[in-house]
Amino acid sequence: MPRTVRCALIQASNELDTDRPLEQIRKAMIDKHMKLIEQAARKKTQILCLQELFYGPYFCAEQNARWYELTERVPGGPTTRLMQRVAAKHHMAIVVPVYEEQMPGVYFNTAAVIDADGKYLGKYRKHHIPHCHPGFWEKFYFTPGDLGYPVFETKYARVGVYICYDRHFPEGARILGLNGAEIVFNPSATVAGLSEYLWELEQPAHAVANGYFVGAINRVGTEKPWSIGEFYGKSYFCNPRGKIIAQASRDKDEVVVADLDLDMIAEVRKVWQFFRDRRPETYGPITTQSVASAAAD
Fold first, then answer.
1. Helices 78-90 and 22-42 sit at what angle, rounded to 10 degrees?
2. For the chain, what is the total number of helices (H) and then of strands (E)?
3. Radius of gyration in angstroms for the set of CA atoms belonging to the chain, rounded to a whole number
4. Can 164 be counted among the known catalytic residues?
5. Do 271 and 238 form a contact (C-beta atoms < 8 A)?
6. Which residue among the candidates 7, 49, 60, 164 is catalytic per the annotation?
7. What does DSSP say about strands 120-125 and 106-114: parallel, antiparallel, or unpaired?
8. Is 123 a catalytic site residue?
9. What local confidence, expressed as pLDDT, does residue 212 receive?
10. According to the model, what pLDDT value does residue 291 have?
11. Of 32, 123, 126, 234, which residue is the catalytic one?
């Protein structure tokens, strides 16, 4: 019997001006997403992923300690608890990106994974933290992830998570495949420019190299007063052959839905034996911070 899973991605613009009280900003974005989640549920979605830092703007466009107040505990925080109820109501597994406080002063860019019965399965913490280009000051806000590259056994499929800037690093994408991921979700916030060319290049390449499906999410709109660029949407699913099979527009709130045939994973891996033909004993240099220096020594 075919294993087909209906999955969805939600891309959305920020709802309120960024100078409004943080609780108003959070509430407005959660209210918006609740409507979009209902839309996904009406389409009989089984696994849903929200965008990076979904309950606010992409505040890393500035360095301001005010935004630390958006942190919450995972699990146990209000957003995770809310989404557990939503997941159970709709029998839908949900990947929920939040700004996590581990303890005062230690914060992570995190995604909680909730199963279709509302059970909290665990979390992924973003590993690769950029501090580059005007407007991407993430090291001011996030500690690098320390929980490895877990894969979560949901009711419908084995799910892995990679967050935004992580997508530029093939090492973690490979580990997710080796850990058994069938679908890897990448909630993101990226603007037009150099990244738009890479948006439809890197993640289909990860899907091919590792023989799994990828769901890539990007927000939409321009967030003032920062105006670091246009968040260009274009959220999509691609299959293990690297083909984009469903994609959103670049400029509006949208729910992207696709049926993923998980049997394709085995079909593709029977042809492309990348895991069989790996040579891990030769890969030592990639675990050295400075490869050139290690070679010279």
1. 10
2. 7, 14
3. 19
4. yes
5. no
6. 164
7. antiparallel
8. no
9. 98
10. 60
11. 126
CA 95/CA 80 separation, integer angstroms: 10
Burial of 35 (0-12, 13-18, 19+ CB in 10 A): exposed
Find out whether 122 and 113 touch, Cβ atoms under 8 Å. yes
Query: Would residue 23 show up in a list of annotated catalytic residues for this protein?
Result: no
Residues 202 and 221: their CA atoms lie apart, in Å, by 23
Domains of the chain: which residue ranges?
4-296
pTM, two decimals, is 0.95
How many other C-beta atoms can be found within 10 angstroms of the C-beta atom of residue 201?
Answer: 9
| Calpha distance 56→6 (Å, rounded) | 27
Catalytic residue among 52, 182, 202, 223: 52
- Residue 234 to residue 190: CA distance in whole angstroms: 11
pLDDT of amino acid 134: 77
The mean pLDDT value of the chain amounts to 95
Domain boundaries 4-296, corresponding CATH code: 3.60.110.10
Q: What's the confidence (pLDDT) of residue 45?
A: 98
Residue ranges, the chain, pLDDT below 50: 294
Alpha-carbon distances of 126 from 86, 91, 169, 276, rounded to whole Å: 24, 27, 12, 28
- Written as six digits, the tokens of 254 are 């949208």
* DSSP-assigned letter for residue 215: E
Please enumerate in sequence order all residues whose Cβ is within 8 A of that of 197, keeping only pairs 6 or more positions apart, or say none.
Answer: none
